[in-house]
Amino acid sequence: MNYNNLILNFENEIAIIKINRPKALNALNKETLEELDLAITDLDKNDKIKTVIISGEGKKAFVAGADISEMKSMNVKEAKDFSLLGNQVFNKIENSTKIFIAAVNGYALGGGCELALACDIRIAAKGAKFGQPEINLGIIPGFGGTQRLTKVIGKSQALELILTGDNIDAEEAKILKLVNQIVEVEDIMEKAKLIAEKIAKKSAPIISTAKEAVNFALEHPSAEGSKFEANLFSTCFSTKDQKEGMQAFLNNRKADFKNE
Ligand code: HXC
């Protein structure tokens, strides 16, 4: 499949998606979101892939937001459809059986910050900048930012970013737990691949089960979460990989997971 606005590459069990509109700092227009939707739907069905890295093409930006030139003349209905489209795509990332790593190589503003937030793990380049500057455009975040940012950094920190529209640098983002790690920009893909490869060595059904269990914690009270965890924990014992993992430990060797 050829995309106009994405570059998709495969390295063993890792897929790498680059948002490819560097002249517009990788701003997300409708077509890019639709392509991302297709790419993620395809990857979700691909048994060979365990992890997906998302990054931005070019030196400056991960994604500098939704495309302002396209949004400018939207009416209320079109704006709602656009917001719902972005939410649909980012929810697909969040609920995918694959593990998504955002390699934030530069500006992650507005919809770009929201895209990073939908990913499971976020690595930032030293010079990366995060923010929700929508307020300066007379709008609020619309691709899930008011929800995910609040869950990740807490209400008052989220409101400060959303209401001031200020950008923060990677160091501050790390303090706020918005990013997991900071690396030099030239090392970011290598670092993201290292994490992706490490995860890809584990069992596919078990990594997706772990993601499902952790996601559940964000939406449900602890008592329900404990029951949900016990159910998912027990389903691990219906896999060959649980047997292999435990047998390998007892035999003092590395597990050779078959993703079954
Ligand atoms: C459309 C964009 C863009 C965007 C940058 N460009 N961001 N085009 N949508 N979000 C374009 C510029 O118009 C310019 O095009 C080119 O990319 C380079 O950008 P410059 O501004 O010249 O670069 P620089 O001076 O280095 O400033 C970088 C920047 C700035 C700080 C990132 O571009 C910026 O503030 N961008 C907008 C950030 C933003 O407000 N994002 C939130 C959008 S709203 P030309 O043709 O002039 O070279 C949003 C809502 C999501 O995300 C929810 C929707 C439902």
Automatic annotation (TrEMBL):
Q: In which pathway does it act?
A: Lipid metabolism; butanoate metabolism
- InterPro entries from the xrefs? ClpP/crotonase-like_dom_sf, Enoyl-CoA_hyd/isom_CS, Enoyl-CoA_hydra/iso, Enoyl-CoA_hydra_C
Which EC class is this protein assigned?
lyase
EC number in record: 4.2.1.150
Catalyses: a short-chain (3S)-3-hydroxyacyl-CoA = a short-chain (2E)-enoyl-CoA + H2O
Q: Which UniProt keywords apply?
A: Lyase
Domain of life (superkingdom): Bacteria
One GO MF term: 3-hydroxyacyl-CoA dehydratase activity
PROSITE patterns named in the record: ENOYL_COA_HYDRATASE (PS00166)
Query: What is any one GO biological process for this UniProt entry?
Result: fatty acid beta-oxidation
A Pfam family it matches: ECH_1
The record's section on PANTHER family has: ENOYL-COA HYDRATASE, MITOCHONDRIAL, ENOYL-COA HYDRATASE-RELATED
Assembly and partners are described as:
Homotetramer.
Q: Which family does it belong to?
A: Belongs to the enoyl-CoA hydratase/isomerase family.
Q: What is this protein called?
A: short-chain-enoyl-CoA hydratase
**Species lineage:** Bacteria, Bacillati, Bacillota, Clostridia, Halanaerobiales
